[in-house]
């Protein structure tokens, strides 16, 4: 963990490794899970971190003697089914003379890093700290980073014929106690290994096993419901008739060779803050009503993304970041992830382990997003809707043109671009390990993320990460737009 306001108030109680429990008494020996083009797409991207806050007052002894052992044991069992999370990512570091096929390598003895920490301060500050960090208001991102483990960048290692192979861990967990107030479950994972759907399935499995252990005094647990939903590992279902994997790998390796920090965690500005905004069903319906004449039957996802996109653009303009008239004619790009499991030809199983996300690009000029009245919002809705409809209605399938994605990215240098993470479908607030639902769930340091709410009543939580000035401007525009 890097130095931050959050880590300065933490004491590490234990650092250990958790290996999969062998329920069937069989060893892994060695398993290679080759990367598909969906996986290679995420090479060089920063790792992704999540944190769950549990409002469960407990003493340090109860935490260390009851809660942590149960979470450890259930994690070990869950990793039995999701063993690649214990493995290492192996990719060539250079383009020259390599025979390495990028893969996740899993061996007996592989394990996941687990950090146990305690928020250490006076009693009043502990209470304030838990309330502050689990709130919706703007908090410095480095405070939240203290609650999630650091996934170290890969090491260049000599292995056999290849002298330049990058070997990287892919998953880590941290449990942090706020004495007499609650605890957090933080995790960091490489997006190369799993997408949000797979990670959500793993977390539900972990939580289910933990609940069974808490409620059953016997040693033999009923894992039938887990066995009926095991991850599907066969990579042959991903058809790569255009050689997209090779195209993407060459592109990603070129980026790594020209940027020494390509495999390092992403840095943040000192004043970066994170906040959560809520939108209720009435407000969402109000947005739909604004565009019903132009875009009937529009989805909640589309109108929320369009509204955030336009508010971001207006906030930047309000701060004078587009001083030159020409700046308003610069193209802005908004990326949306589409789960392709049911959309590929043929479809692949819904429990497929790995990545199956297609990144869809929406593009408008700043002036189109800043249009008077509701014009900018309508333009954004129409562009997002058109992009998504174009992917699903193409006769060539959802992968049409995907092999050209990084050529398009190269052409966007210097232009504004961002995307949305998460999905209300993952039901992050339903993740109960046996001590109740999370009080709060956060993506850490994602510019824009979406999640459901704790009450699961159709409301949404929008996580945003900006500079302090941008957050203040965005908050005003976002709030006023919903009121009006």
Automatic annotation (TrEMBL):
Membrane-spanning regions, if any? none
Record keyword Ligase present: no
Does the record bear Acyltransferase in its keywords? Answer: yes
One MF term in GO for this entry? Answer: acyltransferase activity, transferring groups other than amino-acyl groups
Pfam families given in the database record: Transferase
UniProt keywords (A-Z) are:
Acyltransferase, Transferase
Official protein name in the record? Anthocyanin 5-aromatic acyltransferase
Source species = Heracleum sosnowskyi
Source lineage: Eukaryota, Viridiplantae, Streptophyta, Embryophyta, Tracheophyta
